[in-house]
Amino acid sequence: MLSVFAYLYHVADIPYYRQEDAYLYWQYEMISDWIEQNDEAELDSRKEELKVAQWCGEKVEQKIFNHKNLEVFGRRITTFRPKNDFEQECLNVAQGIFSLYTEYPATTVFQHAKYADDEAEQEDEVIAMNKYISFIADGKGWLYETLAESVNNEFNECGTTEEPTVLKDFSGASVTNCSLEFESRLFPLIGDLCYLLSND
After folding, report:
1. Residue 153 to residues 116, 120, 148, Cα–Cα distance (Å)
2. What is the distance between the alpha carbons of residues 53 and 43, in angstroms, rounded to a whole number?
C-alpha cells in the first residue's frame, strides 16, 4: 500500500490534507480553530482526535514522500503473497494502480480538469476536483463527521461539480486523440481502495 499511496501522492497528484495548498488542510485548520476557541471539557477527546490526525498525517506523508516506494512498486507486487481475502483485495487494487503507473507514468488526476485555469469561476460556482479528491485523515469518528458536514455545507452553495472533461475542436483543426480512459480506470480503483480502508 505504500507504493499505491506514493503513486497517488506523486504521480496522480492527489492533494494531501497536511499540505497548506490543499483545500482540506484549511478545513482541518478551521475545525482546529473552533476547538481551540471552546474551553469545554468534552472537547478534550476531540482535541486529541485532531492531534492524532495531524501527527499521523505527518508520519504517513514522510513515508509516501519517499520515491523509493515507486521504484520498488513492481517488485512488491510480484513478491507479495496474500494470506487472506483482505490481502488479496489489496493486491488487486495495487495491481490495477501499478498497471496505470506503467501505462500512464506522468498522468495526473487533474489532466482533464475543465476549470483548472479559471479560479474565479471555480471559487464561486463550481466544486473543483481538487476539493473533492483528496487524502483525508480518517473516514470515521467525530472529526470526519465534522469535516464532512463542513465540506457538504460549502458544496451545497455551488451550482455544479467539476468532472474530467475532454474538449474537442472540430473547426477544421486536427482533432487530438484524447480520452478519459485513465480516469475511468483510476476512479474505480480509488473507490475500491476507500472501501478497503474503511472496512479493514
Report:
1. 22, 20, 8
2. 15
Closest by alpha carbon to 18, among 118, 136, 124? 136
Residue with cell 503473497: 81
Residues whose CB falls within 8 Å of the CB of residue 153, separated by 6 or more in sequence, listed in order: none
pLDDT class of 120 with cuts at 50, 70, 90: very low
pTM here is: 0.87
The 3-class SS string of 85-120 reads HHHHHHHHHHHHHHHHHHHCCCCCCCCCECCCCCHH
Angstrom distance (rounded) from CA 151 to CA 4: 26
Q: Where are the alpha helices (DSSP H) in 140-200?
A: 141-155, 181-198
pLDDT at 99: 98
